Amino acid sequence: MAKLGEADERWIVEDRQDGTNVRGWHWSEKDLLPWSQDKLGELFENVSVDASAHGCESLTLRGVASCTGEAYLNTRKGKRIPGYELDVKVSYEAIVKGNKVTGKLHCPYLADENADDDAELKALPDGSGDDDEVARTATNKAGIPVAQKLFAQFVKDFADGGPFADGAVAPKKAPSSAPSADAAKSAASKPPPEPARKGRTVKMTEKFYCRPNDIYNTFFDEGRVQTFTQSRAELTREVGATCRMFDGQVEAVNEEIVENKLIRQRWRFVNWEDGCWSDLRIELSEPDGPGNTVMRLTQTGIPEEDRYGNNVVDVVEQGWNERYWKRMRQIMGFGA
């Protein structure tokens, strides 16, 4: 039993006048149909498919033609409960004997209840000629496996919380445009806020079977980072410029860059309080000889919580370990 005044914070439900659902304790439901439409649109935008073995000079998934149904995310006691039933049509375009033909790849029922199964799909040509039939067959044979992987990625992202996944931004309740007299009086009587605390520190030492330039280049190579994080990245080596990772949910401003040796940045999740940044320092060396790189990471000034009351330090540590080091070793081949 906890001592008086030391109750586990997970069991404390605050009465918040600002309407904030602290730590996702109260039941809430978010409409994720707009997010689902946008996410599927990103995944299926101009995806090339190799269908040369099936009579097509080219085959491209051009984007989502329609996405209807419902999609929502329920939260209760900190647990996320996703739900969706979607009817999705993806446009395809093929070149057959020099002729362009089009059609739709139809997924009539994408639902949380069959999340572990491959999406059921069927090609529907816009025309009825011989070239349309060639493209239809090619899309069924070559396009469907590609589309199923993209739908599987959507299902995973949805299960992780969609736009409310760790590190993502959750919308705050809009403030009233005209606060009441009592609220204004209360605000005026409050003392000025205390200075921000120094913050927490994360330190890591990792060993990789590669050269320091391999690690250094990977941090600034958009293609590599997007491959092992499975999310968009905007990267630059320019000092003073901003890098963005994980679809813009992480921002970093380059402070000092020494090729193959040092990366120093101001670093934050966008759901931290405005103006709150941590200091990131990554040092690379080969103390045991070529091919055995030691990376030392020190990150200071990490806030205790984000603006919604969620723990930050654990998210940062888990993110580096699971989303960076583990995947760099597995996908880039940098370690045991």
UniProtKB/TrEMBL annotation:
Gene3D superfamilies: 3.30.530.20, Activator of Hsp90 ATPase Aha1, N-terminal domain
Biased composition (Low complexity): 169-189
A GO molecular-function descriptor: protein-folding chaperone binding
SMART domains reported for this sequence: Aha1_N
Family recorded in the similarity comment: Belongs to the AHA1 family.
Domain of life: Eukaryota
Residue ranges of domain Activator of Hsp90 ATPase AHSA1-like N-terminal in the record: 29-160
Gene Ontology cellular component terms for the protein in this record: cytosol
Any matching Pfam family: AHSA1
Any one GO BP annotation for this protein: protein folding
Name the UniProt record assigns to this protein: Activator of Hsp90 ATPase AHSA1-like N-terminal domain-containing protein
Region annotation Disordered: where it falls in the sequence: 169-201
